[in-house]
Amino acid sequence: MASKFQNRLVGTIILVSIGVIVLPDVLDGKKTHYKEEIASIPIKPELDSDIETFEVLDPIDDSASLPPTPVEVVVNDTPVSKEPNTSVENRNERPLPVVVKEVPERNEYQDSGWIIQLMALKSAENAKNLVKDLQKRGYQAHTKLENGFTRVIIGPDISKSKLERQVLELEKITGSKGRLLKFKPLNP
Fold it and tell me: What class has domain 114-182?
C-alpha cells in the first residue's frame, strides 16, 4: 500500500493543478468582448427612383437665317493688295527714337541692417569649410563670389551692437578682423 506521505503528495499535486487550471477561469469574472460595428459598403448603390432618361433633340436647321453668299468686308472702299505698302507717307515715317532713362537707385532700406565682411579667400573650398564651421558655432555665415575671391560674410542683422560684439568674437576664432558694413538688400 501507498504510504500516507505519498497520498498527501498526490492530493497536494491534484489541488495545485486544479488551482492553476480552474481558479483563473472562476476568478476572472465575466469577460467582455469588444466587437466593432462594421458597416459594409454596397457594391452597387440602390436607387430609389427610376433610371434617369434624357431626351435627345434633333438639330435645328438655321439655313434660312444665313445669307446666300459669304460676307465681304469693305474697309475704306479700297481693295486690299498683298504687295508691301510703298506710299509716300510711309516712306517719310521714321521709327520713333527710343529714349532710355536711367532711374536712380532708391534704397529705402539704408539703415535696415548690418553685415560683417570677415575675409576674402581665393579658395572657394576653404571659404565653404569656414562658413560651415561658423554656422555650427551659431553664426549666420554666407559666401559671396566677387572678382575671383570668395568673401565670407556674417549677417545681416538689424542690431549694430550685436554685430560689433561678434566682430571681437570672430577675431578670436578666425584670427581675422572683420569690417562692419551696411547691408543693402537690393544690391548686397
Answer: alpha beta
Q: Length of the chain, please?
A: 188
With a CB cutoff of 8 Å and minimum separation 6, the contacts of 128 are 143, 150
Q: Are 140 and 101 in contact (CB under 8 A)?
A: no
Beta strands in the chain (DSSP E): 114-121, 141-146, 149-157, 179-182
The predicted model scores a pTM of 0.41
Residue 173 burial (CB < 10 Å; 0-12/13-18/19+)?
middle
What pLDDT score was predicted for residue 13? Answer: 95
Contact 116, 166 (CB under 8 A): yes
Predicted confidence at residue 106, as pLDDT, reads 62
Domain boundaries of the chain, sorted by first residue = 114-182
Contact 153, 142 (CB under 8 A): yes
- The pLDDT score that the predictor gives to residue 109 is 53
With 70 as the cut, is the pLDDT of residue 33 above it? yes
